[in-house]
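Hey Z.,

So I finally got round to the adenosine-5'-triphosphate thing we talked about over coffee. Here's the setup:
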Amino acid sequence: MADSIEDYVRETQKRVQAKTSKIRAPHVFDFNYVPNKPLMREELKPVVDGLLRYLSTGIPNHLLIVGSRGSGKTLSVRYLEELFRRKGLELVYVNCRLANSSYKILAHLLGIRARGYSFEELAVRFEDRYGPKTVVVLDEVDLITDRNMDILYFLSRSEAQYMTILLSNNPKWVTGLDQSVQSTLQSEPIYFRPYSAEELREILCDRAKTAVGGAPDEVLGEIAALTAKMTDSDVRVGIKTLYYWAVEPETALRDNFYRAQREVVVDVVKSLHDKNLLILKAGAGKERRLKEVYDAYRILCRRYREEPFSYVHFCKSLPYLQSLGLVLLTFTKVPRTYAKAMQLTFPPEILDTFWRVRFG
Ligand SMILES: Nc1ncnc2c1ncn2[C@@H]1O[C@H](COP(=O)(O)OP(=O)(O)OP(=O)(O)O)[C@@H](O)[C@H]1O
Ligand SMILES: [Mg+2]
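And the result:
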């Protein structure tokens, strides 16, 4: 045992250095890292086609890319951003988590403080600054809080003929929009399906090569299989597991996976709305029929004085929770037939922490 804090720091530093020294390129474990050659996927073709059409005609075709967490939406457009810039098409990117209103989005893209101007003034400045053949990418677009969605009206009606690419992991986002916004946009929906275990393995194989000079096939295969099965294929969990495998090789791979999953899930649960927390709380425990979970949900709502969703609305919010990798929607056998069921995909203790903070 170390005698002093200083001894402890010194000893631990030696151990940490020994474990991490074999990582040649730690930055590839950063979720924002853009690999030189991302894995190609079929769904990217309509995005590339749309951009090429716009590049040669200047006539915009708006795209809406929807797909579950970690299905490569952000990475794909960030990669294309670079590639098309070299061809003369400017892609300007904004994450609506950071700029969550029409006004803030324009201010952000203009690089000015969001104060002292009207939205219309910002729009004029935007048109002065960005000419035709500009593609505006709004990532996590469902997090824009203003109801009127002025930004979408502006971008789709401007004489500069901007093209927009909207990204979201909420498949219901468009249907919740005002009819007039929907018809102004006329965006082509593109669905990024979750990666297969084989695709995950390829992505991880590439990361492992750059980071640590490679990893055994069986390790990559197991991480990919666990990620596909337990997280709706969120690549982030796979990448984080790979990191722990590299620095904690003596820990069982499954335990490294659970640790990675827990850390990634904490970030997601932290950003959830109370209404979704209530649904998850009601669904904690073993796999149960949706009707039973809904009954438990209503009881919780009554206890915490929240207005409950109708059963239909409740069911409609589940695919969103699934796309975040938090629940698994299944069918369970009941006498003579099957019924829809759900199950949480993460340890309920994670939920409890946030539950106590929000609901006491
Ligand atoms: N095709 C791919 N090739 C290489 N790496 C990938 C690929 N797709 C995803 N990744 C990696 O997986 C991680 C998650 O991808 P990304 O951030 O693009 O997901 P997302 O679909 O935008 O998720 P969210 O809905 O949470 O924003 C990133 O670290 C990214 O580099
Ligand atoms: Mg993203």
